Amino acid sequence: MTIKMTIKKNILIRVSLLLSTVVVAVTLCPAQADSNASGTFTGEIMDSLCAKAGTHDQMMKDMKSMGKDKATCSTKCIQLGAKYVLFDSSNKAIYELDDQSKAEQFAGQKVRVEGALQKKKIKIASIAAAE
Predict the structure, then answer these.
(1) Per-residue pLDDT tens over the stretch 54-101
(2) Whole-prediction pTM value?
(3) Which of 24, 104, 108, 131 has a C-alpha 20 to 30 A away from that of 90?
(4) Radius of gyration of the chain from Cα atoms?
């Protein structure tokens, strides 16, 4: 066997191993299974600033201009650059929302969101007040 053939054989083996690793990684990747998971999500429409704390209380206490209710606080935080999110208090999950205009009218309210979850962002099909 010549040196040239040995080099070609080594390259072929390395490429085969690399391709095998990529195939296994793609097959086992859990993110692929969760991609575009449709369902119903419940929680409160909050602003992204207050959602990190899980409450509006501290923001309203520290900054009197934020109002005295959840809806006003969320609206003021949005004016400061925050985004509307869905906060699920049962598991402390924060979901980004793809359509801010659909969420706006429900600021500070408990809601039911129908949509597709893509990573931590919900592609909203519909939002309704929770009963």
Answers:
(1) 998 888 888 888 888 999 999 999 999 999 999 999 999 999 999 999
(2) 0.70
(3) 104
(4) 24
